[in-house]
Design a protein that fits this description.
The chain is of the alpha+beta class. It is built from 2 helices and 5 strands, in the order H-E-E-E-H-E-E. The longest helix is centred in the middle third of the chain and has 17 residues. The protein binds guanosine-5'-monophosphate and zinc ion (ZN).
């Protein structure tokens, strides 16, 4: 755990969150400032700063993290059913200042639901 990290504190239960999913390695919770009707953050419990830190040893972890996105989207009613334009979700890693990252604990944004969405 990184003592200065908001998301490590959420993992530790020191900051409350609306949990959507949890297992030994990952946690998913609602974004506090949602940009879409469904906006979930999926994080590894391990503190990694950003996607740029995920090479080699962390590829399996990142793969499993990505694999949770469709499952969580489906559970929240925005799963992908086909190219009909009425379903599906956006999965996004903001990486570094240039990528718009504000919290430096790796997280995957999962966004979905009826538009318009808030510009961010
Ligand atoms: P980033 O810009 O780093 O990709 O996204 C960070 C996200 O974390 C933002 O969408 C922001 O609303 C969310 N966030 C920041 N602090 C908290 C918090 O304490 N709790 C929750 N649930 N979300 C947070
Ligand atoms: Zn952290």
């Amino acid at each position: 755990m990184n003592d200065n990290c908001i998301f490590c504190k959420i993992v530790a239960g020191l900051i409350p969150s609306k949990k959507v999913y949890e297992d030994d390695d990952f946690l998913a919770f609602d974004d506090i400032n949602p940009a879409a009707p469904v906006h979930v953050l999926v994080i590894p419990k391990l503190h990694l700063e950003s996607l740029a830190d995920c090479e080699g040893a962390h590829e399996d972890l990142v793969g499993r993290l990505c694999g949770l996105a469709p499952r969580i989207a489906r559970e929240r009613g925005v799963g992908y059913d086909g190219p009909d334009g009425t379903s599906g979700f956006k999965a996004m890693f903001n990486t570094g200042r240039g990528g718009g990252q504000e919290v430096y604990h790796l997280h995957l944004h999962v966004l979905g639901g009826p538009r318009p969405w808030k510009p961010r």
